[in-house]
Design a protein that fits this description.
The complex is a heterodimer of chains A (456) and B (89). With 456 residues, chain A is of the alpha/beta class. Helices cover 60% and strands 7% of the residues of chain A. In chain A, helix 4 packs parallel to helix 8. Chain A starts with a helix and ends with a helix. Chain B is 76% helix and 0% strand. Chain B contains four helices and no strands. In chain B, helix 3 packs antiparallel against helix 4. Classes of the chains: A alpha/beta (456), B mainly alpha (89).
Amino acid sequence: MEYTNIFYVLASVLFILGIKKLSHPKTARNGNMIAFIGMMIAISVTLFSYGQLDYWQIATGMIIGAIIGATFAIRVEMTQMPQMVAIFNGFGGGASALVAAAEFLKTGELSTFTLSIIILSIFVGTLTFTGSFIAFGKLQGFISGQPVVFPGQQVFNGLMALAIIFIGHHVVQSPSDMNYFYAVAAISAIMGITLTIPIGGADMPVVISLLNSYSGVAAAATGFVLMNNGLIISGALVGASGLILTNIMCKGMNRSLTNVIFGAVGLEQPATGDDPAKQIIVKSYSTEEAAMIFDAADKVIIVPGYGLAVAQAQHAVREVAELLESMGKEVLYAIHPVAGRMPGHMNVLLAEANIPYEQLKDLDEINPEFEDCDVALVLGANDVVNPAARHDTSSPIYGMPILDVDKSRTVIINKRTMNTGFAGIQNELFGFDNSIMVFGDAKDMLQQLLKDLKDL
Amino acid sequence: MDINILTVFILAIFVGIEIISKVPPTLHTPLMSGSNAISGIAIVGAIIATKVGGGTGTWLGLIAVIFATINVVGGFMVTDRMLKMFKRK
């Protein structure tokens, strides 16, 4: 049996190398392939080295799983990527919990340590499974994106957590009592729901990252149950990855993780935005007038928000950008960490429209560039360009890192209406002297702008 | 408990943090779907769980194989599909 572990180590090394190659778009595709080879090695060595496996059942399971997985992977639209990752996290967590459960059900004598880890694996795995389905439902629109709260929710979750510890302890003491074992699974499933349902749609990027991390933790715990290095290492990698992304997302919104999970943000905001003294007076331009401003510019920075993707306007943006470049102007894109619905989502949406990745700049890279930028074109972004985040301590987004578009000579903002963003607050940027509004659907507006630029 | 296995776990977390911090924000979505595929490693446990003579455990193993395979196949395929789109000028 010893040689099998060598192959699991080899698989783990390939996973690490694969992720390492993800550090650059040039090598990333190669990296994914390397990780895939690692997975094939891990699966093959398992199939060959464990005796008495039910190959018929394994083959059936793999064929069904492969068909479902491939269908998802081929059919999914790039805007739906967060939902898909959410549901895949769920399957990963579910698989780990099932493996731990199977181990519990068939092995005779288990040590206290193994039993505890089995409980942990079932808890985290099941919670990930149900939580991911709620996240999927919210992103897909099956469930309200609004936070769903009920009185005493926090207390309820606290009691559930205590119950898990208490009942889990009981299972470890007397593993033959199956009812307690089922109770652990049931409570974990309910907790996955009650912990995810109060979280608002705008916070979903954090939740998906966190569930990603959980699926890794569940896999690692299952690895401890089976004493399998491959699962432990891979689980640790995924757990770390999810945690880092969760942290990046929280920083991008200037929120603590506890605030995201228990804050129920996005529920009714106090009506501060209706203060008539704060009424913002905006200048509204036509695309023709906007085209003249672009004509005089040397450097243009485009700020895409999720509204752009909703309007399916990525290709229209690229056409405008290419035309501006052919007119000798420098064009860059500013991507806020929470511009999309999951980490890095906006980059994928723009890459799909053949926008070269060198032009996509993240927050730290792009902010100094606004100083000598002639036109910042804000498309369907709102809260991430709200200067109130820098100075207004009463603003719900105060302290959130923003893109400093207001430092550009001119800011052209495209919006459908004057409606507020996710945070439900007015944006003072729209009333600034150097701000110009161009109202309309992003795609229509860009196509009109393209025409007007050509007619100059 | 075997202390070696805990050592492996802790070192793997450090390696993970090191290499993942170097992934640029541009590639965070593929990183997520890719690591998702890697968490499909639970398939190894699922395969072992189908060992003949396990009763209910075997059936749980079958469902686990299905779930984990969805993860592995779907995860690697969709990651490749995304990474294919990242082009230079």
